[in-house]
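Researcher: Structure prediction, please.
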Amino acid sequence: MIKSFLVSSLIITTIFIFINCSAEPENNEQTAAKKEQGRISKVTWLSFNEGLEKAAKEKKNILIDFYTDWCHWCKVLDEKTFRDPAVARKLSERFVTIRINAESKTESVRYKGKNFTNIELTRAFRITGFPSLGFLDQNGDVITLVPGYVPPETFIYILD
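Model: Predicted structure follows.
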C-alpha cells in the first residue's frame, strides 16, 4: 500500500515538473505586461475630503463606494470587482476612489459648504441600499449612482 502511494506520488511529481519545464518561456513583453498588471492590483481608497481635493487638483472624476460592515454584497464587490487587476488599473488611471462607511456616526466630512456625518452624507446622496457606487465629476457634482453589486466584467464597461 505504501509502495503504491510512493510510486503514484513520484509519477504525479514527474508529470508536474515535465509540464512546467516544457512550457514556452515568456518573452520580455509578456513579463513586463504581467509586472505592470501586478503593480496596480489594488484600489487605493481615500477619505472623502482628501479625495475631493485630489480630484479637483488632478481633474479626475470620482468613484465613491458606499458600504456597510454587515453587507455581504459589499464584501463580494471588494473581493471580486475591486481586486480585479483590470478594474484596479482603470480606476487608478481615470478616477479618484473614495470609500465611505455609510453607517459611521463618528466620521464627518465637508461637502458643498456643509458638514455631514457619514450617515447624513449617505442620506444626502439618497443612498438606500448597499453597496452603492457614486460617480462624481471633478467638482464633486453627482453624475450618477449605481446601486448593488456589479461584477468586474460589467464594471469595466461602466468605467469606460
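Model: The chain has a mean pLDDT of 82.
Researcher: Thanks, that helps.
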